[in-house]
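Q: Could you predict the 3D structure of EGF-like domain-containing protein?
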Amino acid sequence: MQLEQNGDTPSAQAKGRPSFAWNSDSCLSYEMASHDYEEPSPTNNDLHEYLEIVEWGNRNACTPRISTRMYDNSTSAEKKYKKQKMFLFFMLGCVTSAILIVPLIIVFRQSTTLTEKEKDKCTTETPCINNGHCVTYNNTVLCICPAGYIGKLCEIKDLCIISGICHNGGTCITTRHSSYCICAEGFLGKNCKYRGLQGYQFFVAFNPKYRNITLHMSSEKSGRCDLILPSVKRYKTIALRGNYTSFDLSKYGNLGIGKISGDAHIRVVCEVFVYLFYFLTDKHGAIWKSFPVIPSKGLSNEYVIPQFKPHQKFDALSVIAFEENTTVTVNFKTARWVLSNITFNESMFDGNKLTFNAEQYEYSYISCEQCHLTGTFVNGTRPFALFFKTYIPEVIPVLPLNDFSKVFIVPQLSNLMKTLGLRIFSKYKTKIEFKDTNNTISTSILDVNNYLTTNHKHTTVVSSQEVIILFLKAYSPHTGTIDNVVPGINQYLPYYEFVVPGNTDENFATFIVPSGEVSGVRLNNRQFELSHVSVTNVRIFETLYSIFSISIKEGWHIAKHVNYVKFGLMIQGISNYQDKRHSGPYLYFAGRNLTIVTTRNN
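A: Sure. Here are the predicted structure tokens for EGF-like domain-containing protein:
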């Protein structure tokens, strides 16, 4: 911003008034034109008017606060001209490095004694609150607010004066009407407390011999994403234009996926922040697995394998390190022998413990026979991605150990889906409580590094003394068992982006919202009508939650709460619905807060 001086008007220096200019720090500065300027004192006989400037802007601005007055005692004709010029030069305040304009409260008033009528307005109406100072001008009441308050009547608390109100690198901004946080990339919420699933780098693994993979991604900004297949040294660049994009890798033979005999792993690297989902389908188009992908910033260096399938003869896990010099240790519960693509002269196998150096971006594969990996603890010197297999075609990402939680709401599935039940794993001995919508309660004791399964037909609240991981199991005659990790209530978010894939039908978004906050939920910026929707209520401690499902169409969607209230969101539907013989359900939870770290009870 630049102030221009009008050359055909009397200069500020000639009239003995302050002059204003922009200094090198991009701040409005003022200086006296001559050393003998004196501020006139108002008298009862002379009518003096003054312009009072009070700056209430960003606390970090280079001029934290300006308070000055200008008096005028000239004749009426000249006075009118001078008033206009004073307002011209006092219009705006400081500009911060972020190009934010710091507002100035400008009060023009007479310095003579207030009339009785004006006095009455400030004494009888007393509109200013929070110790605001009442002034009048032309029979209008104005409020001058003390530090820490803003608004027409000083009714709004300036939250930016509170240290640390914006978390995770967020910036606090104050206007005349409100205070709010501008969050750093990837963080969400009123105070930037939550981290969603956006990121720059992701890792995906699948078996191309048995499954096709489709990537779905969205970004608010335009940029490029590179899909890199390290095993065949090929890559593909995708252009993002600030919207939703899908990419079916099976249609791009030049990527060399067909040359991969085992599992394929893909490194996705983007210039801009994106959400990434992927769906694994068979040759008929039925969805077998659906996942929102955790970005590399949300990965961990501690995992425990929670999956379990009875009577299995094959278990495997794989590691992808995204930093150099990453040492990984696998503490097997039982292992008769190990097959691996790891170079064993760079690893150590002692009893049931395997330690090796994971190469950056390489796929380190480990398998064991006549054993199961449930309860296997895997840790590393640096964060890494971990995948698990109990069946050759399926490669399942493992959630970090700190993603375990204590309290869950498991919603009822669509009538078109068959529910097998819940599977729960705990690294520690714990007591687990189940409560249905009729407040019927049952309990179970889960031992160290063990699992249990239970039926699930209706909405259920699951709570545990220790952190656990909870799987919701659905079933299809064609696709078999579908396992989905249920987020804890402390992992809910106030904002989600999600996708409904093509060739699907009977798609629903299931919301889990605190009952008093349902009206604030928006789906694609629209408030939905619940008068014809079935709503189920469950209580957890002092909070009542409402669970309901809304029909949705194919494509990309945004769900949020206007007051930044956290809620849960599950997506479900039927894939390949036109072919009943080869159709199957799909479901996934749209996201989770990646900044939550739940600690054990002492």
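Q: Anything worth pointing out?
A: Residues 145 and 154 are 5 Å apart (CA to CA).
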